[in-house]
Design a protein that fits this description.
Helix content is about 55%, strand content about 15%. By secondary structure, it is α/β, with parallel strands linked by helices. The model has no long low-confidence stretch (mean pLDDT about 80).
């Protein structure tokens, strides 16, 4: 009986030891350089994480600040849970990427802090870095496919052919090559000196594009049924005008007889213009004549005799009264 009980105890102990050894995995081992214990958890969202292992390093500013604890697939994104060491502040607007120290090195999670002027508040425990602030690495298959397309499409051969053609057109004579380089230098110097003109041209193109953007509703109206009807009517009007214009053109081509008439009219208008200038020059004299001489005499029609001198020079104004009496003009 005692022997049977001992066998049962030994079997149970062996099963417990084997079970505990089976639960021991590589992820259960402490990570080299990690400072286990404490800290606070955060969640980082990625589109894909390739083969990011659990317990991968979390690096910020070149220093390990935590480790990845779990990776969960949630719909169209992957949530990476990480444990950050106590006393380490992770800005809420930090960017997260997956990087490698070497080509064959392990992938780790790198956090990039923004500048101090733009740095946001620190993440709280269970805080989250959203998908918009993370950069997922390209798929290895896509990289290999793009490289294969680049090599297999003949790009390398075309580059080699281009280099050969450049070498063929390059002058072998040093003097010619120096002259060619000098001309290129002069052209580049002129371009650099007139870069303001290029800037003005680009500003003009930008302004034109901006005007076109503001009138997009008008352009869109052109392709509506009403706009198409307007195009049709404009075409019909242009057809009528095209029929009328040749007859008008015949009148124009046969109107050479109008040239002498137009020349005479031009001479007449020149004479009228010269007459106008002459009248303007004489207007002041005529104004003086009428305002100082004619108009006062017309308003006060009288003659005042102030002096009468005889042939011998004697003043005869004193004898005027006697003369008037002799004529009967005065009593």
């Amino acid at each position: 009986m005692k022997r049977r009980i001992a066998s049962v105890v030994v079997g149970a102990t062996t099963a417990m030891v084997v079970t505990s050894c089976a639960s021991l995995t590589v992820n259960s081992l402490p990570q080299p350089g990690a400072q286990g214990g404490g800290g606070y958890p955060i969640v980082i969202e990625f589109e894909n994480i390739l083969n990011l292992p659990e317990r991968a390093k979390v690096v910020q500013g070149g220093t390990t600040v935590g480790m990845v604890t779990s990776v969960d697939l949630q719909g169209d994104r992957v949530e990476v849970s990480a444990q950050i060491e106590s006393g380490v502040a992770i800005p809420s607007d930090a960017r997260a990427t997956l990087e490698q120290s070497t080509v064959l090195g392990d992938i780790y999670l790198a956090l990039e802090r923004p500048s101090l002027e733009e740095q946001g508040p620190a993440l709280v425990p269970d805080g989250r870095i959203p998908l918009a602030q993370t950069t997922s690495p390209p798929q290895l298959e896509d990289t290999i496919a793009n490289l294969a397309n680049f090599v297999g499409s003949g790009s390398v051969q075309r580059m080699q052919d281009s280099i050969i053609k450049v070498n063929n057109v390059t002058p072998t004579d040093r003097q010619e090559l120096r002259a060619l380089v000098s001309r290129v230098a002069v052209d580049l110097s002129d371009l650099a000196s007139d870069i303001e003109t290029v800037d003005q041209w680009l500003q003009g193109v930008s302004g034109t594009a901006e005007v076109m953007r503001r009138h997009l509703p008008v352009y869109a109206h052109w392709f509506t049924p009403a706009g198409m009807l307007g195009f049709d009517r404009a075409t019909q009007v242009a057809d009528y005008i095209g029929t009328v214009l040749p007859s008008i053109g015949s009148i124009y081509s046969g109107g050479y007889w109008l040239v002498p008439l137009l020349n005479s009219m031009a001479d007449a208008l020149g004479a009228v213009q010269q007459t106008k200038w002459n009248v303007e020059d004489e207007a002041a004299a005529w104004r003086t004549l009428f305002t100082e001489s004619y108009m006062p005499a017309d308003k006060y029609p009288a003659i005042n005799i102030t002096s009468i001198t005889g042939p011998d020079g004697n003043e005869m104004i004193d004898n005027v009264e006697d003369v008037l009496r002799m004529l009967g003009a005065m009593p």
